[in-house]
Structure formats: structure tokens, C-alpha cells
Amino acid sequence: MKKLSIDDIDLTNKRALVRVDFNVSLKDGRVTNDKRLRAALPTIQKLQGSGARIVLMSHLGRPKGEVLEEARMGPVAQALGKLLNTTVHYVPETVGPMVEEKAAALKPGEILLIENLRFHKGETKNDAEFAQALARLGEVYINDAFGVVHRAHASVAKITEFVQPAVAGYLLKQEMESLGRVLENPERPLMAVIGGAKVSTKITVIESLLDRVDRLLLGGGMIFTFYKAMGLETGQSLVETEFTELAIRLMQKGGEKLILPSDVLVSPEFDFKARKVGQLSTVGFKEIPADCYGLDIGPETIAGYARILEEARSIVWNGPMGVFEITETARGTTRIAEALAFASGNGALTIVGGGESVTALEAAGLSEKITHVSTGGGATLEFLEGKEMPGIAALTAR
Question: pLDDT at position 1, please?
């Protein structure tokens, strides 16, 4: 941690302006999944215990600078209040005299949630005037929203020019420390498992990890672009033909480090929307029928990947191995989750990031057996790529 954290500053009676990630799903005016709210509780409770006056700010959805009734933060304030067993005050404005008055009136330990940041175009434009208006709500700034630190937004980056100190909350601190261990000084062997539908979304993270890991295991729909680049039949599988040359370059760079599945699960019928597949069969990667879809890694690959991961002392996983949303084609993803849980039990550092990987992990009931489950999607990938993160760069250095 080369940045100050919430433990490094005096919070007594200070108005703490906290960027959280409360971008949750709402249905009929209620929060349907409070995981992101629960992730912020340690920081909020620390502030309460320290006698701080707490102003929370977050985006919700993609209103693109327009006020949308269905994206208001009121239901979030109610859900958070239930988790904390206290009143979370809510103001239906983001900046301005009314919000400043509400913030100034807070007593030690009290909480105010302001309106959706993205109701203002200035948020995503990293606008200085909007950032300055937000800064008037606090005396210290705390970022606890890892999911947006890769964005140069007003509440994430520009705001730190107007309110100092700017420090990391507990959630952001944990993310920085856990992911940083993979990049800076991992215990070896270090293995990476990268999946997902498209190689185009994982190019830079694969390139970056190939310089760091001992083995990189590939899965998901992206493998068919690699097979196509090798001149193999890929059937009806998803292929990004414009990235075949890049796939060749990655294979050349990775050499023996980069491992592709030796067998795959295929079917002549596949309807994702209806969650249906036809008769499934296992074929070698060189034997994919022209009329079939590739839907998951095969049993030989599963066993081989599990053996490799058993040897690991550090593992990072991002992206499913197949169409995990359908039970019949979820086995590869589930077995990778089980392999990471087994490795964790043997003392390995295991990190899972990316929305789909986390969803699969939760579906398997294994989240508690992983060393660190990242709350970021794009942020996790960009951190592992070694990119500078605007929201982290803006924090006060030690």
C-alpha cells in the first residue's frame, strides 16, 4: 500500500465524503441484491465508530446525464439502513445548497446518501466544476469503490484536487493489496486461468500475464479463435476472425506457458435465450464437427487443468470456461472453481475477478473458500494489466 488508507487519518467529527459502488439492481423500487452494500459496511462502520459525519455518493445504472426516476438512490438508502440498523438520510439532489445544508447538519455517526452521480454529465466527463461542487460536501475524501477506479470520473479522480486527504477505504485497500500480490511478489508457481466469450476483451490481460505467470490456462468461447488461427475446424462456435493473427502472436509469445483445451464439449443445437442445448458429446480439439457449437471444456482438459492448479501457490481466475449459465455446459467452470477452492485449502493465494467468474463461484457455493473475490470487472482486468488506475493514482501518497 503506497497510498494512505482510512486507518491513517483522523476522522473524529470530520465530514467524510465517501465514493462507494452501490450500482445495484432494482426491481419494483427495491434492491434485489445487496452484496455491494454489504461490501461497503466495514468502511461505513469504521467511520461511524470514529465519530465521522458520513456523506455517501455512488452512481446507479447508466442515465447518461439525465434524471431517471427508476435510477434514484432512495431504495438504496432504505436497504442500507436495514443492514446498518440505522437511518440513512437520503437527499434527491446530488450537489447544490440543499445537499450542502443536509451534509452540514449531520451529527457524528449519521449518514447521508446523495442522489445518483450520473444524473450529471459532469461525472463521466471528469468535470472540475462538478467535482468542486461535490468536494464542498466533505472535509476528507475516501474512495471505497474499486469497480470504478479505472474511470477518470469527477467523483473518482478530479475531486481529489479539491478535498484532501484522499484515502482508500477498506474494500479498495483489500483489492489493492490482494491484486498487488499477484503483480509484485507472488509465491510461485503462479497460474492464471482466463476464460470468457471473446479474446478481444482479454487481449491485454493475457499479454500482461504471460510476462508474469508460470502457466496460463485458456477456456471459454475465446479458444475457438485460437483454434481457427491454427487452421482447425471450429464448427458453429464463436470466432473473432479479425483476431486470429493476434491469437497466433499470443501463442508464439506464450510458448509452453499458454495452454489450450485438448478436448471440448459440443452440440449440434444451442439456444442461449431458451437455455437449451442438444445432444452433447466430447471431441478432441482437432475434431470439432462442422455443424456443432463448442460449449465447454472437456473432461480431459478439466482433469489436466486441475492437476496444474494443484501445484500452484498463487492463482488468478477471470472468465468462465464455457456456457456456465446452462447446467449441462457448466461443468468446466464449476470444476475450475472447485480446483481453486482446493488450492486455497492447501494454502495457495487464490483470486477470482470478473462478474461472470464471481457469479459462477457463488452458484457453486465456493466464494468463502477463495482467498479474495474481487468486486471489480473491468477494474480487475486493468489492474492485472498493470495499467495506471485514475482513482488510485489520485489518492494521497504515503
Answer: 63
